[in-house]
Design goal:
This protein is α/β, with parallel strands linked by helices and 305 residues long. It has one domain: NAD(P)-binding Rossmann-like Domain (Rossmann fold, 3-Layer(aba) Sandwich). 42% of the residues lie in helices and 13% in strands. The protein has ten helices and eight strands. It has an eight-stranded mixed sheet with strand order 3-2-1-4-5-6-7-8, with helices on both faces. This is SDR family NAD(P)-dependent oxidoreductase. Belongs to the short-chain dehydrogenases/reductases (SDR) family. It comes from Stutzerimonas chloritidismutans.
């Protein structure tokens, strides 16, 4: 990326110690932004903790001539989110962009999912996105500008096996983003979502045993994390000033505008409905428009080219 769309801006990127978050932070710095790198350095499941991943991201930014700072507070705590925003203000004196990217996975089939599995994922993804956005909102409102970019997932937009916690959180983020867009548009604050596709530690369990599987994995591995960065950099910039409340997906060299829930079909009864009338007439009329029990791989059934 050669254009510096975010020259002079200050951005927070949560979960920026690796993967997609690291690529977003580096790309934002290349676009001219000063970046607060937030990462607590835990495993994919949320265990451990180290500043090393954030330090590595900072090193990459500095190697490219950019400016950055590090924060290791947890997005899943209200006070932690306040400290994240305060760190950006202390380091750079302002705040223009928030990228809510931090996340963990605790996959389990629904009937085997524990309360801790549920709460841990909801706390990081959904509560974390709210806490950090809410901490930044007063600053955005006061300066009459700001941009939020939230990471959602097709696991929430479409569905997937064994991810009730993750899917619920990611679809909740879409509703949160739309609410922010509606409530804060009067202050010139925008909020959009990206469903990223990338080969990462979240996807490297896909089997690659047969020649066909190996060939497919080779294609999927081309969906490297940095493929998501241009869209995030654009949405964070003033070039996207007219883009608000939308949901996009980035998949290798493809960009998608995703649909949002709207009525598909309706039926009417002059005398109202009884359960029997619904069974005999209402539901048969609606059945042809039912949504299938699709998973994300069923909808995105072609490999990237």
């Amino acid at each position: 990326m050669t254009e510096r769309l975010n020259e002079g801006k200050v951005a927070i990127v949560t979960g920026a110690g690796g993967g997609i978050g690291r690529e977003l932070a580096v790309a934002l710095a290349q676009s001219g932004a000063k970046v607060l790198i937030n990462d607590i350095g835990v495993s994919l499941q949320g265990a451990g903790g180290s500043a090393t991943p954030a330090e590595e991201t900072l090193g990459l930014i500095q190697q490219g001539g950019g400016e950055g700072a590090i924060n290791t507070d947890s997005v899943s705590e209200w006070d932690g989110a306040q400290r994240i925003v305060a760190s950006a203000l202390d380091a750079f004196g302002r705040l223009d962009i928030v990228i809510n990217n931090a996340g963990i996975l605790r996959d389990a089939i629904f009937h085997k999912m524990s309360a801790d599995d549920w709460l841990s994922v909801i706390n990081v993804h959904l509560n974390g996105s709210f806490f950090v956005s809410r901490a930044a909102a007063e600053h955005f409102r006061a300066q009459q500008s700001g941009a939020f970019v939230h990471m959602t997932s097709t696991s929430g937009l479409i569905g997937n096996f064994g991810q009730a916690n993750y899917s619920a959180a990611k679809l909740g983020i879409v509703a949160l983003s739309k609410s922010i867009a509606l409530d804060m548009q009067r202050y010139n604050v925008r909020s959009n979502c990206i469903a990223p596709f990338a080969w990462s530690r979240m996807t490297d369990s896909i089997p690659a045993e047969t020649p066909e599987q190996k060939a497919r994995v080779e294609k999927l591995q081309r969906m490297t994390p940095e493929k998501n960065a241009p869209l995030a950099v654009y949405l964070a910039s003033d070039a996207a000033r007219e883009v608000n409340g939308q949901v996009f997906a980035a998949r290798h060299n493809e960009l998608f505008l995703m649909s949002q829930s709207r009525p598909l079909r309706s039926v009417h009864s002059d005398v109202g409905w009884t359960p029997e009338h619904i069974a005999g007439h209402g539901m048969p009329a609606l059945r042809g428009s039912f949504m299938g029990l699709d998973r994300s791989p069923d909808v995105f059934a072609w490999d990237p080219i």
